[in-house]
Design goal:
Layout lengths: L3 E2 L1 H5 L3 E8 L9 H11 L11 H12 L10 H12 L7 H13 L3 E5 L8 E4 L5 E2 L8 E2 L5 E4 L4 E4 L3 E2 L12 E7 L5 H16 L4 E2 L4 E2 L1
Helix pairs in contact: 4-5, 5-6
Keywords: Aminoacyl-tRNA synthetase, Ligase
Pfam families: B3_4
GO molecular function: phenylalanine-tRNA ligase activity; RNA binding
Length: 219
């Protein structure tokens, strides 16, 4: 699967690393040891020092650039690390989603995982035209997007608001077997860091079974 980035988004410094795993098995509890290791590693971290981390700083700067206040809406990796410090635990959703949360909290890179069976055609990252409908995970009501927002779309719908919100329409469920894994890159974060985050996610998902169908691609 190929992900295309439009010129306007490329000028914002947007890039992604991505791969696919086919034929995996989803469920609960397989990655419990991995979850606990991450929780133990970061449970005593000072959350205020996260702001000094260059990766966190890069995502915060990008958020400001696209009109999001990162002190109110935290970048994904930072939010997960703060959750560990606050609660001592990551959420347990299902094994595939847990893999993404482990990787994101470890690397501070936003990881999106999408059910390939729900994706129509090949995704692209574009700026919204305004009026697109987005169905966010965790919300009952859809949202109508304003113009100029970086989004990942397929041939039919919005999959993701870049780099921090996923649609429930393409979300992973317990029946999911084939997944697209995407690491979200922004200016100031080296491509190898994004690639490594996708590698971590992929290796965790492969513990559940399945096969990685191609090397990680950077777009």
């Amino acid at each position: 699967m190929k992900i295309t980035i439009c010129d306007s988004c490329a000028k914002l410094g947007i890039f992604v690393a991505h791969t696919e795993v086919l034929g995996t098995n989803n469920g609960h509890g397989v990655l419990e040891d991995d979850l606990r290791l991450v929780e133990e590693r970061f449970s005593s971290e000072d959350p205020e020092r996260l702001k000094e981390n260059p990766v966190v700083r890069a995502y915060r700067d990008f958020y400001w650039r696209i009109g999001i206040d990162p002190t109110k809406t935290r970048p994904a990796g930072e939010a997960l690390r703060r959750r560990i410090e606050r609660n001592g635990k990551l959420p347990r959703i299902n094994d595939i989603v847990d893999a993404g949360n482990i990787a994101s909290s470890s690397t501070l890179i936003p990881i999106g995982i999408y059910d390939i069976a729900k994706v129509k055609g090949e995704p692209s990252i574009v700026l919204s035209k305004g009026g697109e409908i987005f169905y966010p995970i965790g919300k009952d009501k859809p949202e109508t997007l304003r113009a100029g927002i970086p989004i990942m779309i397929d041939e039919e719908k919005v999959m993701h608001i870049y780099p921090h919100r996923d649609s429930r329409i393409t979300s992973v469920e317990e029946s999911t077997r084939d997944v697209l894994i995407v690491g979200a890159g922004v200016p100031g974060v080296d491509k190898e860091i994004i690639k490594n985050a996708v590698e971590v996610t992929t290796s965790l998902i492969l513990k559940l079974g399945g096969k990685q169908v191609h090397e990680i691609v950077i777009s």
